[in-house]
Structure formats: structure tokens, C-alpha cells
């Protein structure tokens, strides 16, 4: 997974350990307040956290568009531009009437919503007592072979050479939205006011040393994560946590690798408790179906889960495990490796 794009030095990457996500949306709000709280961007969540299994944000994004049609990437397989209903409209609330004018109604949206971002929160799947769900935080993958870049006829979307971050040149963009349908992860958005495409910028001002205090910081989604599940650093440096998790331990996997864009965001898959009967007897089967995890993270997910279980067991019996040390660190210094950026 560590092939870097031609002409890109120091590809930046992120690993997210799904075993730690509690779905608090702190990352979503950190991103929103940093980058998308202006008019025209109301519906945008460059970082969103969706409940899986579920249709996600935008609704049904996994069912439309494959990125590249095949492994050799000679042809794209564009998807559809999601409707605003699919993303979820931002609703007007009766805050003024209730909070300022003394109405005794409950605070509620003015319209009767039928869909919205995070609509399926905590729904999941399965039957009691073995129902299950987990959270999947999603951002642009800053792919090594980004189909969004290929989709743009004006070369407005580009992958910058110093760290592989994928950006939209706002001067060149004419708002054709080919990139919106070209990204199989649906992580490029159309600014309704500016009429240009916009997307996650991996908080490049922060990593370049221009954070709010004038210092270098990891992206806001990582720095704000209350359970510290995000690792940020170079993909190809063998001493860093990203390389160790992706390449050495092989427990961090790309989402939907079959889109052939080669993401630089990787996930440690969620481990499951066992199933049990209504009477409480243990059944020898994982609560989250491994076949479902394979749909998301590919066939390597089984080996990754075996490795996680094996290393966890080593710690349980008092042995050392480098992998578990990386995954359970409570020091952000060990999670970030940004000196080269
Ligand atoms: Fe482009 Fe989508 Fe890949 Fe981001 S996730 S680089 S928007 S193809
Ligand atoms: Fe999950 Fe961390 Fe985001 Fe909370 S802040 S939703 S734990 S990724």
C-alpha cells in the first residue's frame, strides 16, 4: 500500500484505529468550524463520521461510482453527483421562537426532515442479542492515483508534490463538478455560493506551521479526537507509526481498495465481541460479520484482525507487543511524525 505517486515526496498519510471511535463527532465539528462554516458550505462535512453498516454520507455513496474501472487505471468509472437531499439539507430551526420569543414548543426543524447527515446513527444491523454497529470517520483519502484529478478537464484539482495533498485551485475551477462525480468516496463538494469545488485540505496551513498559534499542528480532526485514534505522518518512513501499522504489521488497510485510487488514509478494522444466545451462552462467531468487513477493507482484513487478536493476547499474558504499544499510546508525540512537513 505504500507506493507513492510519481513526483511526490514525503506522501502524508493518516491511520485511524476504528476500535477507539466513540462517534462523538468532535472531529466533524473541529473540521466544520475551521473550514466549512461559511454560506454555500452548510451541507459540507469534509470530515464526517458515519455508522456502519449504513448508507452513510452522502446517502448510498458506496453504490455509485468506482473511481477507476480497473487496476490498470486506463479508464475511469464515474459515479453520480449526489442530490442535496442525499447529503442532507441543513434545517432551519425555531430557535428564535422558542428561546427568544417564549414559545412553549419544542426546538425542532421547521420542515419535516426525511433524511439528514448521520441519519442512521447507531442503527447498525443484526438481530438482538447480536446486533452490531461501529463508526467510520471519513475524509478525503489524498489518494496516490486520485480519479478526481483525472476527472477535471481544467487541471484545477491537483496533487501537490511536497506531500501529496490533493487540492482544488480555486482560480482555475469553473464548477463543472466532474470531480464530484469522479471521486468514488464522494469527498469533493460544490460550494453553492462560490460555484467552485472544495474539499479536505488535510489542514495544510496547520502542518506547514501556520496553526492558530503560529505553530505546526496535525490536522484539526486528529488533534481534536478525544480518543486519540488518528496517526499522522509519512507513509514511507520505516521509523514512523504509519509505516509500521500499514506496512510492517499490516493491520491498517485502505477503505474500498477496489476503487483503485490507492488511498493514503488507512483503517485499523474494528474487533468484535463474540455472539451469544438470548440465554447468554457464548457462540463461536464474531458479532460484526467478517464478510462485511471484507466488503469495506478487502480480504486482508482477516489477517489484520488475527494479528490484532494475537498481539492483544500477548499483552494479556504479560508479554510485550510493539503493535499494542503503538495502538495504545496516550502521547500524541508518538502518533504524529511531522518534522519533514
Ligand atoms: Fe480525490 Fe476522492 Fe481520492 Fe480525495 S478521496 S483524492 S477527492 S479521489
Ligand atoms: Fe471518533 Fe475521534 Fe471523531 Fe470522536 S473525535 S467521532 S472518537 S474520530
The biggest sheet amounts to: 4 strands, mixed
Radius of gyration: 21 Å
- Judged by helices, strands and strand pairing, the structural class is alpha+beta
CATH architecture: 2-Layer Sandwich
CATH hierarchy, class: Alpha Beta
In order across it, which strands form the biggest sheet?
10-1-12-11
Ligands in the model, by name, code or SMILES, are: iron/sulfur cluster
| Topology pattern, helix = H, strand = E | EHEEEHHEHEEHEEHHEHEEEEHHH
CA(first)-CA(last) distance: 21 Å
Strand fraction? 5-15%
Write the layout of secondary structure elements.
Layout: E1 12-17, H1 26-35, E2 48-52, E3 67-68, E4 76-77, H2 84-87, H3 95-100, E5 134-138, H4 147-151, E6 157-159, E7 166-168, H5 178-182, E8 188-190, E9 197-199, H6 204-207, H7 220-224, E10 230-234, H8 241-248, E11 253-254, E12 265-268, E13 274-276, E14 282-286, H9 290-297, H10 301-316, H11 322-327
Parallel strand pairs: 1-12
Antiparallel strand pairs: 1-10, 2-5, 3-4, 6-7, 8-9, 11-12, 13-14
The protein binds iron/sulfur cluster (SF4) (2 copies).
Describe the 3D structure.
The protein has 341 residues and is α+β, with helices and mostly antiparallel strands. The chain has a single domain (12-93, 113-334), classed as Alpha-Beta Plaits (2-Layer Sandwich), CATH 3.30.70.20. The protein is built from eleven helices and 14 strands. The protein has helices spanning 26-35, 84-87, 95-100, 147-151, 178-182, 204-207, 220-224, 241-248, 290-297, 301-316, 322-327, and strands at residues 12-17, 48-52, 67-68, 76-77, 134-138, 157-159, 166-168, 188-190, 197-199, 230-234, 253-254, 265-268, 274-276, 282-286. The strands form six sheets. Strands 10-1-12-11 form a four-stranded mixed beta sheet. Strands 2-5 form a two-stranded antiparallel sheet. A two-stranded antiparallel ribbon has the order 3-4. The two termini are 21 Å apart. The structure holds iron/sulfur cluster (2 copies). The site of one iron/sulfur cluster has 14 residues, from α4.
